[in-house]
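Saturday, quiet lab. Running sequence design on the C-alpha cells for the scaffold JK sent over.
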C-alpha cells in the first residue's frame, strides 16, 4: 500500500510539474502570437540561420504547452520546449550565463528552470495522470 501511495505522489508531482511548465511557457507563446516573431528572425539571421525558423517557436511555446497540459506526447512536447530554451539561452541569453541579476538570482534562472524542468519531463514522461502514459513519447 505504501508503494501505491508513493507512486500516486510521484504521479501527482509530475502532473503539477507539467501544468506549471505549460502555464509558464504558454504565456511566452501567447505573447509571440500577439506580437510576432520577427525579432527572433533577426537573431537567427545574425547567427547565419534562416529567419523562417522563428516560426518553430509556435510549436515549442503554443503547441507543446497544450500537449503538456493534457499529458499527450509529454516527452516529445517537453523535448521541443527544452530545445527552444536551449536555443534561447545560446543565442540570446548567453551573456547572462555567468551573471547575477538585480534581485540576486542567476542571470538566466527562468530560462534554466524551464530548460531543466523540460529535461525532467523528457526523462520521466507525463506520469499516471496523462493521456499517454507509456512508451517513448509519453
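Result came back. Writing it out in full:
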Amino acid at each position: 500500500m505504501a508503494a501505491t501511495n508513493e507512486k500516486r505522489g510521484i504521479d501527482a508531482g509530475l502532473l503539477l510539474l507539467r501544468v506549471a511548465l505549460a502555464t509558464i511557457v504558454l504565456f511566452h507563446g501567447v505573447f509571440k502570437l500577439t506580437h510576432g516573431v520577427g525579432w527572433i528572425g533577426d537573431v537567427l539571421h545574425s547567427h547565419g540561420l534562416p529567419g523562417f525558423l522563428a516560426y518553430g517557436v509556435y510549436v515549442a511555446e503554443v503547441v507543446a504547452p497544450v500537449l503538456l497540459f493534457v499529458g499527450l506526447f509529454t516527452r516529445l512536447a517537453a523535448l521541443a520546449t527544452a530545445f527552444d530554451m536551449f536555443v534561447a539561452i545560446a543565442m540570446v541569453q548567453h551573456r547572462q550565463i555567468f551573471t547575477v541579476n538585480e534581485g540576486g538570482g542567476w542571470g538566466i534562472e527562468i530560462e534554466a528552470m524551464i530548460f531543466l524542468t523540460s529535461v525532467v519531463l523528457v526523462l520521466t514522461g507525463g506520469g499516471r495522470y496523462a493521456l499517454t502514459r507509456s512508451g517513448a513519447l509519453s
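Notes for JK: The chain has a mean pLDDT of 93. The chain is about 70% helix and 0% strand. Ask whether to fix the surface positions before the next round.
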